[in-house]
Description:
With about 260 residues, this protein is an alpha+beta fold. It is built from 7 helices and 9 strands. Strand 5 (about 165-170) and strand 6 form a beta hairpin. The termini are far apart.
Amino acid sequence: MTRSRTVHALASALSAAALLTCAACSDGDDSSGTGARDVASASPLAAQTTAPATLTQEGARSALITEKDIEDDWTQVDDAASWRDSLLIGTVDVNDFITGKSDAADCQQLMDRLYSEDLLGKPSGAPALRGFEEGDSRLLYQVASYDADALSDSMDWLKSLPEKCDQFEMTGGDSGKRTVQVIEISVPDEGDARQGLRVTVKGTADGSAATLTQEIAAVRVDDNAITVTAGGLDGVEDDSIEEAVENGTPRLEDVLAGKTPQS
C-alpha cells in the first residue's frame, strides 16, 4: 500500500510539471507571438472598435453618379448648386394641424430644407453634389458626411413626415396660396437605412396654375448619406430615382472601402 501511494504521488507531480512547462512554452517561448495575436483578434470587443471610414472631399466627388447611372435622357449640368424653386417658399398655415405648432414646424422645416437643398441638415464635412436636367425636370444627387446622432435624428424625422404633413396649406412668397401633400414612397433596399417621400405642391407660377412634384430618397451608409431629389412641373420619373439609389449606393460603399468606383 505504501509503495502504491508513492507511485501515485510521483505521477501526479510529473503531470503538474508537464502542464506548467506547456504553459510556459505558450507564454514566453513563442517567438512569433501568434498566440497573443490570435486571442486579441478573436475578441468580440476588438471587432466592435473599428471606426467608420472617413469620407474625404475627393471621395465624396468620386461617389457621385454620372449620366450612365440613370435612365432616359438626363444631361449633367454645371449650375445645380444654384437651383431653387419659388413654389417652395412660404409659410405653413398652423391652422391646418390638429396638433398645432409642433407638426407645423416639422412641415415648415421640410419646405425650407427642400428649398435650401439641405434635406438632412447641414453636413459635418465632405459634401458633393451633381445635377441633371431632362426637359423641365431636374435631378439633384448629393453625397455628404454628417454627425452620427444628427443623421439618425434626420432619418427619423423624414420617416415621420407622411403622417405629420399629410396635407397642409402654404401662403406667402410669389406663388400665393398653395396646397402641399406629402406621401411615403418605396426606396430600393440599399445602405443601412433609407426613406422616400413624394412632395406635391399645387399653386401658381407666372400667373398660371402649376403643380410641382418632387420625389426624395435618402440612404444612410455609416455616418454618410446619399440624397436624391427629382422632379419638376412635368412630374417625376420613378425609375430614375431607383437607379440613382441602386447605382449610387455601391459607389459610396466602394469609396468608403478604399476602392475606386467604376466610371
